[in-house]
Amino acid sequence: MDHTIIQKEIEFALQNKKNPQHLFDLVHSLRPYDISEVLRELSLEEQLDLISKLPIVLAAESLEYLEPEVQYHILRHLKDSIASPLLKQMSSDAVVDMLLAIHPLQAQRLLDLLPEDYRDKINQLMTYPEYTAGSLMTVDYIAARAYWNGEQTLSHIRKVGHEAEIVSYIYVTDIRGELVGVCSLKEIILARPDTRLGEIAIQDIITVPADMEQEEVANILSRYDFYALPVVDQQNRLKGIITVDDVVDVIQEEATEDFQKMGGSSPLSEPYFKTSTWELFRKRIIWLLVLFIGGAYTANVLEKFSDTLSKIVELSFFIPLLTGTGGNTASQIVTTLVRALGMGEVTFKDIFRVIRKEIITGCLLGLSLGFIMYIRAVLMGVQTNVGWVVSISILIIVLWSSLVSAILPLILHRLKVDPAVVSNPLITTLVDGTGLIIYFTTAKLLLHL
Amino acid sequence: MDHTIIQKEIEFALQNKKNPQHLFDLVHSLRPYDISEVLRELSLEEQLDLISKLPIVLAAESLEYLEPEVQYHILRHLKDSIASPLLKQMSSDAVVDMLLAIHPLQAQRLLDLLPEDYRDKINQLMTYPEYTAGSLMTVDYIAARAYWNGEQTLSHIRKVGHEAEIVSYIYVTDIRGELVGVCSLKEIILARPDTRLGEIAIQDIITVPADMEQEEVANILSRYDFYALPVVDQQNRLKGIITVDDVVDVIQEEATEDFQKMGGSSPLSEPYFKTSTWELFRKRIIWLLVLFIGGAYTANVLEKFSDTLSKIVELSFFIPLLTGTGGNTASQIVTTLVRALGMGEVTFKDIFRVIRKEIITGCLLGLSLGFIMYIRAVLMGVQTNVGWVVSISILIIVLWSSLVSAILPLILHRLKVDPAVVSNPLITTLVDGTGLIIYFTTAKLLLHL
């Protein structure tokens, strides 16, 4: 969908005040995301004009796709009589995200536009820490009572459904607000109109607490193929719901973050081109320095073995190949394990199974590579003894790398540190120095230096 | 949820044949995923017993979570009178996944259980290649006509809704099967019962072709926050729909795959513990060998410079640190770009913007690291000249790594090769050898060797 053409058409329709039907026809065929892309390119005046002329549901949803500052800017310049219902129509999780991103004084100004009871709800939502279930949830769900029948429920949906983010599930609560059942809209429609919700609702409900980490929420929702997940407090009172579209965003964000961490950089908070050069530099230099300091000891190791090195210069030829292979083995294991930990496939209690698996695989890999390394050395025409040294060293280095890379992510996960900090560069640097020690010690022993 | 306890209870209920209500009460509170976890642990006899006693919708959904071989095994041993409606009740994409994974003869045996028209549909679905929109879609959607009113549509849903995978969207098709509109169930319920679908349906629909890559499908669905996406052929005829739960799985799988690729291993097709040691070995050794062969030339580079090396042994101290830093910079850039390409944030036409951004960042990083490298060398007490050599080398190496890592993923993406093949180990190996050439050339020039 080409947003530039739509933008031109919309600008034209906005100017053509004599024929309001034109604008209406245009936007009727557009989705909120498309409208948000157009809004981005319009002047403030045009933005205000367009937003005020859109049906309120469409206006609210389109606004939600924009950056917090832009949302604020538009809401602030609209007449209160338009801004107030618009803000109320926006889904509560989007409102909270915006309010937390702008200045508290600006947030207060917007909060004042809301009716008191809704303002309290939003204020409460704002207290949940980032990256938790609470920060993802919306209060725009549909609740019903167990003694309502299908007919009554549908007429309730007709009354409040406009504000709900999702109507696929109806949440059955009791008089204390406790969640006692969940019913899908499909079941209500399929059942006879006089069937009470209590009869068709599932009573043993999968819920999450507000302080659960968002990654875990995503794992639960995707495991069960749900479209939404209810959030309850310790008294099992329904506080809100998390919808699958927000979880999709979480999954994407978490994967991007882990990616960047595994590449040895602090994760970027914005898409690539929105990140300034200075920001890129800052995110990268931190880890480069850590790695530099971590790697600097390789120079000391080599200095310590400079006698050996100057006696047999040939040994130095294989330094990059040996450390490289150790690092490559480590990268393979660490990435696999970090991902498996993130997906909940592996946990700390599996540590011995993981070690066993990796050591056996490491043996196979080390023997294969050792064999090839020996041939390579012979082909280069180095002394036979040096060939044996590199060949045996690589076996030990691969086993050592396997052990370190199998243990480290699991221990970090156990210590509640994100295992993705064991990035590829970090593990490579870690096994570089130890690899050199293994290499030169093997050389000393075998060559009697 | 502890599946062992549930399993015990279910086994007990299965044996307790006098009180069938007990089993009914038990499974009524369980979700399909939970039942699948229990099924996994039961004997074949118990599996058959449980499946035959479950309500058919629940039985079908539970089966869908199991591995294809297990699904086949159960279906094959059930009486035809149970297996046939069960297979028909399963969502068509799950059936297709199973049939494609088992032996063609086994697949044929199952297909024979289906009524002819449905068998044709399944046969057609099986022709779509893996990882495309076609392979993700299900034909279990609800279609309606534009002239139906809300009342008629609801009664249609009551008739066919049991088989539909999602009822949140109703697809409006014309007499030729062309998709002319989409309506959400919410809108139908909110509208007056006599409103015709044509009045409330969105006519300008976002659709995807059956041969679109699944990654792109996932990007579209997550951008628009849809719960399902219609798949059409070139005549705009509705062929099926893709639901968000399958897209969530795709997003997770693609991220896992990219992760493992970036770690320098061929992606595993199964979760970690389900992958045999031999399989792990096979997936890893391929890339280790490629990298080994790629890295082997570093030995030649060093051999070529062995004169320089033997004159100033100190130069060898910094080999791992220099190649390591080059590799780290490259890893940071490559992971960021591969992810950005995968998410559609960056494309080939941005290549000059990317190069510019990375070169400027590289300058900043190279200058900072060069400064620190100089201090480090001085502290180690090497000759001042060697300090200058390592310091200048690192600046050039960082710039060179930045350039290579900025260009390579974009070019591969352009050539329709998955840019994730430029894994961290690969880019590290690539810049290792060139880094050494830069280092020793700088040394020769500056130290007049």
TrEMBL record, chains A, B:
TM helices/strands, residue ranges: 285-302, 317-338, 359-382, 388-412, 424-447
Annotated localization: Cell membrane; Membrane
InterPro entries: CBS_dom, CBS_dom_sf, Mg_transptr_MgtE_intracell_dom, MgtE_N_sf, MgtE_transporter, SLC41_membr_dom, SLC41_membr_dom_sf
Keyword Cell membrane recorded: yes
Any one annotated GO CC term: plasma membrane
Domain of life of the source: Bacteria
Matches recorded under CDD domains: CBS_pair_Mg_transporter
Predominant localisation class: membrane
Pfam families from the UniProt entry: CBS (PF00571), MgtE (PF01769), MgtE_N (PF03448)
Topology in membrane: Multi-pass membrane protein
Domain CBS: 201-257
GO molecular function terms noted in the UniProt entry: magnesium ion transmembrane transporter activity; metal ion binding
Keywords recorded for this protein, A-Z: CBS domain, Cell membrane, Magnesium, Membrane, Metal-binding, Transmembrane, Transmembrane helix, Transport
SUPFAM superfamilies per the UniProt record, alphabetical: CBS-domain pair, MgtE membrane domain-like, MgtE N-terminal domain-like
Function: Acts as a magnesium transporter.
Quaternary data: Homodimer.
Similarity-based family: Belongs to the SLC41A transporter family.
Name used for this protein in its record: Magnesium transporter MgtE
Annotated organism of origin: Thermoflavimicrobium daqui
